[in-house]
Design a protein that fits this description.
10 strands, alpha/beta, globular, 230 residues, Rossmann fold
């Protein structure tokens, strides 16, 4: 894999359950790039994200993410791959029985960060990055939707990922709050060189925050110029 190519799919058939839902995907994403996956519900966008995390196996073709081959990846290597990725979901997926700080600490302990001081430092870093340093001891239900999504992004940053995979990260937010989340992701992309692959159905997102666009339709996912992407 070339030096700065973090994600590559070549002729990849993407599965959703037992069935192939997208055929022959070709994609190469370099460090610092922003890529959008757009298309109707059920067109395979989320299945591609799951393929990149090695949750959905490739049926055919090849794939490589952050130096790990997706085709034939060993079970023990999947957690190592996922540490190189930050995943942001539409519905936040915070643990409701833990404070913000405890949510983040749980992730770090689960991924092998054993020293308390190291975990505390990392948590402080990511909360500062998303502008949420005063919310560490709050419970998820005490936060607005936008604040919960900022914490979800902080969680995605904990392991200093090379790639953020964002699945409809603004889908449950009002337009003003969504803009704040998109600006935050844009800043992370520009300041850290983190590649972002984002699923969205909202044209305003990729019109306002430009990036490469892949359209999922008719069991294919093909890169198109913005003029033809709507």
């Amino acid at each position: 894999m070339e030096k700065d190519i973090l994600v590559r799919l070549k002729g990849a058939d993407i599965t959703g359950g037992e069935q192939v839902v997208v055929y022959g995907v070709d994609m190469a994403v370099a460090r610092g790039e922003v890529v959008y996956l757009i298309g109707k519900v059920g067109s395979g966008k989320t299945s591609i994200i799951r393929a990149l995390t090695a949750e959905n196996p490739l049926k055919r073709g090849s794939g490589e993410v952050c130096g790990f081959r997706l085709d034939g990846i060993r079970q023990r290597d999947i957690p190592k791959l996922r540490r190189r990725l930050g995943v942001v979901f539409q519905d936040f997926q915070l643990l409701t029985d833990r404070t913000v700080e405890e949510n983040l600490d749980f992730v770090l302990r689960s991924t092998g960060c054993k020293k308390v001081d190291d975990r505390d430092k990392r948590i402080a870093e990511v909360l500062e990055a998303v502008g949420m340093t005063t919310k560490a001891h709050r419970w998820p239900h005490e936060l607005s939707g936008g604040e919960q999504q900022r914490i979800a992004i902080a969680r995605a940053l904990l392991n200093r990922p090379d790639v953020i995979l964002a699945d409809e990260p603004t889908g449950n937010l009002d337009p003003e709050t969504a803009d704040g989340i998109l600006q935050l992701l844009q800043r992370i992309n520009q300041e850290r060189g983190t590649a972002i692959i984002m699923v969205t159905h909202n044209p305003r997102v990729y019109e306002q925050y430009p990036g490469r666009i892949f359209v999922c339709e008719n069991e294919e996912c093909i890169e198109k110029t913005p003029a033809f992407a709507e």
